[in-house]
Specification:
By secondary structure, the protein is α/β, with parallel strands linked by helices. It is 32% helix and 22% strand. It folds into 2 domains: 90 residues, Urease, subunit C, domain 1 (Roll); 302 residues, TIM Barrel, CATH 3.20.20.140. It is built from 12 helices and 16 strands. The strands form 3 sheets. Strands 1, 2, 3, 4, 5, 14, 15 and 16 form an 8-stranded mixed sheet that branches. β11 and β12 form a beta hairpin. The model has no long low-confidence stretch (mean pLDDT 94).
Amino acid sequence: MIAIRCAARFDGSTLVDGPATVLIDGRTIAGLEAGHPELGADVEVVDLGEATVLPGLIDTHVHLVTDSVPNALDLVEDYSDQQIDAVVSRSLAAHLAAGVTTVRDLGDRRFVVVDRRDRQRTGGTAGPEPTILASGPPLTSARGHCWYLGGEVQGPTEIELALAERVERKVDVVKVMASGGMATTGTDVMRPQFTLDELRLIVDLAHDAGLPVTAHAHALAAVELAVAAGVDGLEHCSCLTPQGPRVPAELLTVMVARQIPIGAALMAPPPASYDDAPPNIKKVMAQLGVTPEQMLELRRSTTGRMHAAGVRFVGGSDAGINDFMAHGLMRSGLDFLVSAGATVPQALAAGTSLAADACGLGSRKGWLRTGFDADLIVVDGFFGVDLAPLARVYQVMLGGAFVSTGRR
């Protein structure tokens, strides 16, 4: 048994200052006690000093096949098998170093990440990696957003075949591109890509197989269709119209009542990164007649209004698709949530316990609780008015074992 002594902790909901001891037995948490009690000689004590312990972060939206360079999605189609496997390895290492112990991949290329997940679950990977959940290639319309990943469908028959393949491959979630996307030139982020009947077919087939569905949706019309179809989660949920972001009261009421988790790249690109922003982002800003700074503030105010109303946000970074959304920068999205009005504990919950719930892992990950997986991170110092300690991860425990992250 291992006893981790720390000076403060975040348990998945609450920040608690004051000495605490986390007991680890094998791969699970065996107990959590206030103070630093005396323990038997057979217990290995790890004294972390002035540090805070919290559950490992869970990133609900990553693209492991992308390499965190400008417009990275454009490169994916031409990677060889060896190149893409190396990219996935680098992506996972970057997440682990940043304290992310579970990733949900929502942008696979022809099931590469699903295969990696399967190797991981059978012990076929070389070293410690964040736990992988995977969707396979996202379902998209003909030449729709991210069509080159291998998920194009058109009409009920192709939708049924695509769902059957995902069920056979035992994906963890079904991802559907309900609107065009910022990273795919030729698609329209202001318009839906599927009809309500098509989205309902996707949701019904997935639910019949016991699978949740999460929908990429920028356009307000696409968000409304996805919610009406009964999706289990929303990615982006930008609620864009030609006049700017708009969240109707009726839609807000439904999202709050159903507690639909919303993740993925809550923030707009930082103004300094505008030159490298995808063409569709520049097109949207031109349509709306706003500067990069104004676009960021529009996104912040929309997120703030939704958060204040009780919408459930979860940590999802859209990691890897650009240099300003690189793998291992999940804290940036959580920082943005704080800037939009969330408290520090609320933002930390979005990246731990609430993210675990959104991924179907709420009974074993995301909390410092007896019987839960011993996926923990140690940050230097204490949380105050911001999330600065998340930039100082110096220990990561994965499944009850400390792993090397390259940070101190």
